[in-house]
Specification:
The complex is a heterodimer of chains A (about 110) and B (about 110). Chain A is mainly beta and about 110 residues long. Chain A is built from no helices and eleven strands. The chains are: A mainly beta (about 110), B mainly beta (about 110).
Chain lengths: ~110, ~110
């Protein structure tokens, strides 16, 4: 596709439910980032992949958060046993190289935990 | 710890009224200062990257400048379509992700 695609656009989960958020990066982009954006705040870094390797997961808030990119393309962010504080927009971005500065963001997935 | 503070939090201007948005930062070993535009319900859209004090970049009605402690995004003769939230972010040496500020919500009234 022409841009970064994320699905679903909206997800409502009951507290304690597991969720999986998908990111389809721009074809050929080796870098992939996940960010969390709370209402009225700037995005916060969660994790970074270079191809299939997860090189930085320092921003994942707890061990309930898990991300993977097994074939170096599509990535999935999984949140286990969701809690209300997990409610946020989850943004995915991709870029051409590790030090690439012009990362392209998707529209995000808005997760609401009730 | 890296810190990015943007001011003002919100700004309302008349069409054609020029102004500046401020981004103050504290980072160890700056490896880039970034400006993004974010429209409601959308992901951030890249505008500029600045690397060293004194650097300036322009795009249409926008001009970004950088000093050792802050960056400014100047908006000249803005139009209603410039209304958006403008985000500033920094990357420090050795880090992969960006540290973002909370953004400035800009409204341009016709």
């Amino acid at each position: 596709g022409a841009g970064v695609s994320q699905s679903p656009r909206y997800k409502v989960a009951k507290r304690g439910q597991d969720v999986a958020l998908r990111c389809d990066p721009i074809s050929g982009h080796v870098s992939l980032f996940w960010y969390q954006q709370a209402l009225g705040q700037g995005p916060e870094f969660l994790t970074y992949f270079q191809n299939e390797a997860q090189l930085d997961k320092s921003g994942l808030p707890s061990d309930r958060f898990f991300a993977e990119r097994p074939e170096g393309s599509v990535s999935t962010l999984k949140i286990q046993r969701t809690q209300q504080e997990d409610s946020a927009v989850y943004l995915c971005a991709s870029g051409m190289g590790r030090l690439n500065t012009e990362a392209f963001f998707g529209q995000g997935t808005r997760l609401t935990v009730v | 710890e890296d810190q990015v503070t943007q001011s003002p939090e919100a700004l309302r201007l008349q069409e054609g009224e020029s102004s500046s948005l401020n981004c103050s930062y504290t980072v160890s070993g700056l490896r880039g200062l970034f400006w993004y535009r974010q429209d409601p319900g959308k992901g951030p859209e890249f505008l500029f990257t600045l690397y060293s004090a004194g650097e300036e970049k322009e795009k249409e009605r926008l001009k970004a400048t950088l000093t050792k402690k802050e960056s400014f995004l100047h908006i000249t003769a803005p139009k209603p379509e410039d209304s958006a939230t403008y985000l500033c972010a920094v990357r420090r040496g050795g880090a992969d992700g960006l540290t973002f500020g909370k953004g400035t919500h800009l409204i341009i009234q016709p």
